[in-house]
Amino acid sequence: MTDNPSLLRALTRLRPPSLERASALYLFAFVIVLFGVWIPDTFLTSVTFRLVAADQVVIAILALAILVPLVVGAFDLSVGAMLAFSLVVLTWLEAHTGLSAAISSLIAIAACGLVGFLSGLLVVRFRVNSFIATLGMSQILGATSLWISENRQISGVFSEKFLSYGRRDIGGVPIVFVYLIVLSLMVWYVLQGTPLGRNMFATGSNPEAARLSGVKTDELVWSSLVVSGLIAGLGGVVYGMKIGSYSNSFGPPLLFPAFAAVFFGATQFTRRPNVWGTLVAVYVLAFGVKGLQLAFTNGVYWITPMFNGVALLAAVTLASRTGLIKTRRRQRRGASSVSEETDGESIGARRAAENIVPAADEVLR
Fold first, then answer.
1. Residue 247 forms part of a structural domain
2. By C-alpha distance, which of 108, 55, 48 is closest to 242?
3. Is the pLDDT of residue 346 over 80?
4. Domains identified in the chain, total number
């Protein structure tokens, strides 16, 4: 037993995170225990964990692309189509030009940044709602991708060296997962550790107040859509490294899982959109789906959308309920304190009146 009082005080302050702020961590622990007991031979293996870590990287990158404009209060519904557009540009360049894969990748990412710039132009200059502007842009991107690919799959255009950047491991960890962590750290640092990030959150919380405080809110919204396009373009390149081909079924189907992760993650840790809550949500959902797929080997086609939808609704409902309970408690405490202050003011007023009368008599004398 330690005799250090400061250490004892620190230990007494250590508490597990509340269910309201970290429900995803408790759900993750539940999923690991449940399937670890149910199907330990297939679930609790390094192969399963490596596969899930690598397979969810593109969805996680897409979620980060959604997160950046969401912080400033804008929606980007074009990121799924942007991934597909990035990949089709990359594969077309590799198939029809002599450019290196690195140059083709940069061109594909830059093309997505240009699309984000055009979306920002519509939102900021023409005051089109970001939901509508990016939804329309996603349809344009989908049509462009079909035109470039001639509505067919493109495969066999990447070199083995290029594919090795998406398929090898580093110390037993898939290299694409390392890319994800590096990107996440960069986004997290900008949002949480710089004045730019604070201005972005201020814009998303109250744009008019932020603008009156000197924050260039329009520029932040515009820039966030450009960055969203660049991140989504990077996701398309990473997917190309992993899969090595383009298909017109790729991209838009990943939009809901990514949005689900962002909204689920926004209920975690900071009670607002954040990087680590988003990543935890991505992998909680992924491990839950993987466990169900391994447990039910037949008829699993419905499991992914079902689990994602139920988990998202459950997490948001739980967070909303606990938040509502806390709000009501604060309101009750506020009402009681106001009542006490009112009673105190009444008593003080009576005492002041009692003192004023004798004082008035003295003046009259």
1. yes
2. 55
3. no
4. 1
Q: Are 281 and 260 in contact (CB under 8 A)?
A: yes
Range of the domain at 165: 54-278
Residue 346 in domain = no
Summary mean pLDDT of the chain = 86
Confidence of residue 243 (pLDDT cuts 50, 70, 90): very high
Q: How far apart are the first and last CA of the chain?
A: 75
CA distance 324 to 146: 47
Evaluate whether residue 362 is within a structural domain: no
Minimum mean pLDDT range among 36-45, 58-67, 337-346? 337-346
Give the dihedral sign, CA 251/253/255/261. Answer: negative
* H helices present in the chain, as ranges: 5-13, 23-38, 40-43, 46-55, 57-71, 79-96, 101-120, 130-149, 160-167, 175-193, 195-205, 207-212, 217-243, 255-266, 275-295, 303-364
Q: pTM of the full predicted structure?
A: 0.85
Find, among 83, 80, 59, the residue nearest to 264 by Cα: 59
Q: Assess if residue 27 is contained within a domain.
A: no
CA angle 117, 264, 190 (to 5 degrees): 45
